[in-house]
Design goal:
It is a single chain. The protein is an alpha+beta fold. The chain has a single domain (2-107), classed as Aminopeptidase, CATH 3.40.630. 23% of the residues lie in helices and 28% in strands. Strands 1-2-3-4-5 form a five-stranded mixed β-sheet. The radius of gyration is 15 Å and the shape is globular. The termini are far apart. It binds coenzyme A (COA). Coenzyme A binds next to strand 4, helix 2 and helix 3. The site of coenzyme A has 18 residues, from strand 4, helix 2 and helix 3.
Length: 132
């Protein structure tokens, strides 16, 4: 098993993983320039060619600060509880430091909050959403 950056051949498997892991609709067309966007980083855990987990960090440049947003952390059902999620998020934390993010934010369901707390995240405020 190894962690590496998302490659174009992984996209179908990653979209399938996110679709099966989240109730959201990931069947939108793939943003073709995604892999060239240095402010959107997706890491994958893979075993040979099989994707076991994926997670993304989006870098948001503000006027005086840099924010990291972690999104779409998912591990394939059969491989949960093996430390893969922790390794993926750990890798994104490392990248956020290299990218000089002042802080990282993420939204979590209540049932997963302990997973993030174990990695040092703290509950702060609450998130809101307006869907277009
Ligand atoms: C949440 C998720 C990413 C965790 O990945 P995982 O690979 O199973 O987690 P890990 O094995 O790396 O767990 C790391 C630690 O967190 C703990 N943990 C994991 N999920 C947990 C949960 N839901 N509640 C409490 N603790 C949890 C583990 O027991 C482990 O603890 P340890 O370090 O003391 O042994 C995975 O369950 C998943 O893909 N869920 C569906 C998608 C999802 O909900 N994603 C999160 C979006 S907010």
């Amino acid at each position: 098993m190894k962690i590496r950056l998302l490659e174009s051949n992984d996209i179908k498997q990653v979209v399938d993983l996110w679709t099966s892991s989240f109730s959201g609709n990931f069947n939108n067309p793939v943003y073709t320039n995604y892999l060239n966007d240095s402010n959107s980083i997706t890491v994958v855990m893979c075993d040979e060619k099989k994707i076991l987990g994926a997670a993304s960090l989006h870098i948001i440049k503000k006027l005086t600060r840099t924010l990291g947003l972690i999104e779409d952390v998912a591990v394939s059902n059969k491989f949960r509880g093996l430390g893969i999620g922790k390794k993926l998020v750990g890798k994104l934390i490392q990248i956020s430091k290299e990218k000089k993010c002042d802080k990282i934010v993420l939204s979590s369901s209540k049932k997963n909050s302990e997973f993030y707390e174990k990695m040092g995240f703290q509950k702060k405020e609450f998130s809101m959403v307006l869907r277009n």
